[in-house]
Amino acid sequence: MAGFWLALACLLDFGFAQLFKAAQRVGARPAVVVSTNYLTLSAALAIFLAVRGQLALTGGIAMVGVVAGCVFICSMTIMTRSLERANVAVVLTAFRMAIVVPIVAGVLIWSEPVGSLQLLGLLLAIVGLFLITRGAKTTKGKGVTLPLLVVAGVFLAQGASHTCLRWVRHAGLDEQKLNVLLVIGLTAGGLGAVLAGASGIRPCRKDLLVGAGIGLFNLIALFAVLSALGRFDAAVFFPTIACVTVVLDSASAHFFWKERLGTTAWIGVAIAVLAVILVLIRVGA
To answer: Which of 39, 50, 111, 260 is most buried, by the most CB atoms less than 10 A from its CB?
Structure first.
C-alpha cells in the first residue's frame, strides 16, 4: 500500500505541473491562478470535513497550517517572479535542487536515517536533475543571470515548502492532514489574493476557472503526497518524486508539448532513473 501512495504522489505531482503549464499556454495569470487554487482547495475541504463532522482546529493544526501556508505562497511568488524575469534553466535548477533541504532537515531536526545507497541515489538525483534542467531547450529566450541571492531564495523557499510537508508527520498530524491542508490553503490563498490585489491584478473569469480546476486537482495531489510522506523517510520520498516527476515532465515536453530536449537532458533522465532505483533498493529489501 505504501508503494501505491508513492506512485500516486509522483503521478499527481507530475499532473499538477502539466496543468500549470497548460494554464500558462492559455494565458491565465499565475498570481490569480495560484491564489484561486489554494482558496478552492480550502473551500472544498471545509465542505467535505463539515459534512462528515470531522472539521477540527487544534493548536498544532493551526501552527503547522499557517506556517506552511505562508511558506507555500512565498515560495510560489518567488518562483513565478523569478521565471518572469530571468533565465528559466537557472531558476528550475534551484527549484529542483531544493529536495536536499527536507532531507538535511530530516536528519538534523528529526534524526531520520539515511542509508549509503540512499545517499548515493540522492547525489545521482542532484546530478540528473541538474543535467535535465541545463539540457532542456527553453523557448522563453531570457538570458538574464539571476543574482546569487535570488537563486538562493528559490532554493530555500522551495526547500522550506518540502520541509513543511514533512513536518506534518513529525507533528503527529497524519490523521488530521485534511484539516492541516484546509488551513494551508486558506492561509496561502488569502495571502496570495492580497498580494495579487496589491499588484493591481484584477481576476477575470478564465483565471478563476483555471485556478479552481487546478485547486481541486491539487487537493488530491497534496493528500497523496502527505499520505506517502507518512510512510517513507525524506531520503526516499523526495529524490524519488523529484526524479520520477522530472523524467515524466521531460518525456511530456518532448512528445506532447514539442519542446525538444538536448543530449545532456536525456543523459540526465537516465541518471535520474538510476537514482530512483538506488533510493528504493533498501525499501524493497
So the answer is: 39
